[in-house]
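Homework help board

Subject: predicted structure for assignment chain

Our instructor gave us this sequence and asked us to write out the predicted structure in token form, then describe one feature. I got the tokens but I'm not sure how to describe them. Can anyone check?
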Amino acid sequence: ASPEELTLASMTAEGKVRVTAATTDDAGHRLTDMDMETEKLLYDAQSQTLTIPRNGSLLVDDLRPEKATADAGPSSRGRTVFGWDGTLTYDQAGHTITFLKNVKMVYLPTKPLRMPKGGNSIGSAKSSASRIDLQTQKLMAKLSAVATTAPATTVESPVGLGAGGNQQVDHVRAEGDSKLIVDNTQELDANVLTYDHTTHIATAEGKRASNGQVIQPATYTDPGQALERADAITWDLTKGRNAVTVTNARGNIMQNRK
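My token output:
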């Protein structure tokens, strides 16, 4: 076959492996950055699957300028870092990354999330959130295409990462004993935990038995303020603790805990 007819069928890389992808505007300024490091990588072009059988790290930067308008709404801009001790599998067609074993995610928004004070039993005294941590044994991250108002150029990796401009973390879903921590204080603990990077809404679900009954409630805690136990908990981080809602509350709400 001529060089023009050759296409990548599969790839295996070992040693110090690094995979990058990016999106730039027409002036060459970076809008997104993806940078993954590991020690072994396998890619199959037919199934569009990237597999990493070892530990590693993945950095996803959303570098788009913040909107200047006051009513711009929630933003996903910022840096998200993933680390794992088991494996990573990337489904290019579904734009989904699955991480296994001792998975950690850190999200650092470009601007701290505004968390207004609340006036009820779970009202917040904190006004912003600058760091969100998520810890679990299994995490699925959905990537989406970056929204731009001007022409942009996508630089894809040869192993599918960042293909089609899908270089923004849309949302994540954690399964198993999982926790989400905001600024090392407020915390959600659950069997199933999701976090939406675009709306900054977190949901937590308790552990269920085979008959569907919740046998281990989800919990929301904040030292010195409140403890909430329920079958399910939803929290809009942009509205503070007064935006925590529960399904089938299990009681045990406390204020001014010491």
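Reply (TA_rk): Your tokens look well-formed. For the description, you could write something like this. The first strand starts at residue 10 and ends at 25. That's the kind of observation they're looking for.
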